[in-house]
Amino acid sequence: MLKIRMSRIGKKKQPIYRIVVSEARSKRDGSYTDIIGWYNPLKEGVFELNMERYEYWKKVGALPSEAVERLTMTREQKEARWPSKPKQEKKKEE
């Protein structure tokens, strides 16, 4: 079974992740079938993904990990899946 997931590269305390297609049983940083993008969590919005390859691998049967799925979702899709909780006002003691 194939998975679309992140593989860590980069220095200590400066992670950069490759988005790879790999066998589900392989190690996180082990062998992979295809590199389809990368993600830098230290810089906001620095994320690149080849959507043609992503859709191809999904069509073939590869399952994206939850982290990769979150990166590829739009704001509306995220809000529909995980609705935000309404803020509760604190009651002042009288």
Protein model, in words:
The protein is an alpha+beta fold. The chain has a single domain (2-78), classed as 2-Layer Sandwich (S16 Ribosomal Protein, Chain: A), CATH 3.30.1320.10. It has helices at residues 51-60, 66-72, 75-81; strands spanning 2-11, 14-23, 34-40, 46-49, 63-64. Strands 4-3-2-1-5 form a five-stranded mixed β-sheet. The chain is extended, with a radius of gyration of 17 Å. The protein starts with a strand and ends in a 13-residue tail after the last helix. The relative contact order is 0.20. The mean pLDDT is 87.
What amount of the residues lies in strands? 35-45%
Q: Poorly predicted ranges (pLDDT <50, ≥5 residues)?
A: none
Distance between the termini: 61 Å
Give me the count of strands: 5
Could you say what the CATH architecture is? 2-Layer Sandwich
Query: How many individual helices?
Result: 3
Q: Largest beta sheet, briefly?
A: 5 strands, mixed
Structural class: alpha+beta
Helix content: 25-40%
Tertiary shape? extended
Corresponding CATH superfamily:
Ribosomal protein S16
The strand line-up of the biggest sheet is 4-3-2-1-5
Provide mean pLDDT, rounded: 87
CATH uppermost class = Alpha Beta
Taking Cα atoms only, what radius of gyration do you get, to the nearest Å?
17 Å
The count of domains is 1
Q: Write the CATH fold name.
A: S16 Ribosomal Protein, Chain: A
